[in-house]
């Protein structure tokens, strides 16, 4: 069964689509978990996640081609996490990122979402580069980024955290076929 909200892009196993107001419990299961959020931002209460979800849904109306989106496994319509195509705060650079439920860790979804995100960025936007940011201790995500073709761009400190910024240039994009364009 296909999602009822707008599909932004899909991969072999995943639909990435706009969040809806009915996604509150799923959104909280991700954003309220301290272990999942460890390298992203502080975990939020249910009230805070409901407010954050409302803001994301409103932003989808004004800018549907960028934002935070839900990731659903196609084979069983199961929520697995979130994918983001958002600005790097305080810059004109755009970044991609993901967060997955713990039950989905180690199943290849991070790599698949990253490749699908690259396909989306380089076929549906005019960008010639895309970034990703990780905390230095987040070695698992760094391996995903390097495996999918990102290269280390810079290391810096922000808010007391040491961060690595990775870059992927469109000229290096070879059209990996894991992604299927929007339906």
Give structural notes.
The chain has helices spanning 24-31, 34-37, 46-62, 109-124, 139-147, and strands at 7-11, 14-18, 67-73, 78-87, 94-100, 129-135, 151-158, 161-169, 179-180. The protein has 183 residues and is α+β, with helices and mostly antiparallel strands. The protein has a 6-stranded antiparallel sheet. Strands 6-8-7 form a 3-stranded antiparallel sheet. Strand 7 and strand 8 form a beta hairpin. The protein starts with 6 loop residues before the first strand and ends with a strand.
Shape: globular
Count of helices? 5
Biggest sheet statistics = 6 strands, antiparallel
Q: Which structural class fits the helix and strand makeup? A: alpha+beta
Report strand order across the widest sheet: 5-4-3-2-1-9
Residue-averaged pLDDT: 92
Radius of gyration: 15 Å
Give the helix proportion (percent range).
Answer: 25-40%
User: β content, as a range?
Assistant: 25-35%
Give the SSE order as H and E letters.
EEHHHEEEHEHEEE
Euclidean distance between termini CA atoms: 14 Å
**Which residues form runs of ≥5 with pLDDT under 50?**
179-183
| Total number of strands | 9
In short:
The chain has 183 residues and is α+β, with helices and mostly antiparallel strands. It is built from 5 helices and 9 strands; from the N terminus they run ββαααβββαβαβββ.
């Amino acid at each position: 069964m296909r999602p009822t909200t707008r599909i932004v892009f899909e991969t072999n196993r995943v639909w990435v689509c706009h969040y809806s107001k009915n996604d509150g419990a799923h959104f909280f299961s991700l954003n309220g978990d301290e272990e999942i959020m460890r390298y992203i931002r502080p975990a939020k209460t249910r009230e805070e996640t409901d407010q954050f979800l409302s803001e994301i849904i409103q932003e989808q109306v004004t800018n549907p081609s960028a934002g935070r989106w839900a990731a659903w496994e196609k084979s069983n319509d199961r929520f697995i996490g979130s994918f983001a195509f958002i600005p790097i705060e305080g810059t004109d650079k755009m970044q991609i990122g993901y967060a997955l439920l713990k039950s989905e860790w180690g199943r290849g979804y991070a790599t698949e979402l990253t490749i699908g995100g690259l396909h989306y960025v380089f076929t549906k936007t005019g960008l010639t580069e895309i970034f990703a940011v990780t905390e230095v201790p987040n070695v698992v995500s760094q391996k995903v980024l390097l495996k999918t073709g990102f290269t280390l761009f810079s290391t810096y400190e922000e808010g007391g955290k040491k961060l690595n910024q990775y870059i992927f240039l469109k000229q290096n994009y070879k059209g990996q076929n894991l992604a299927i364009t929007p339906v």
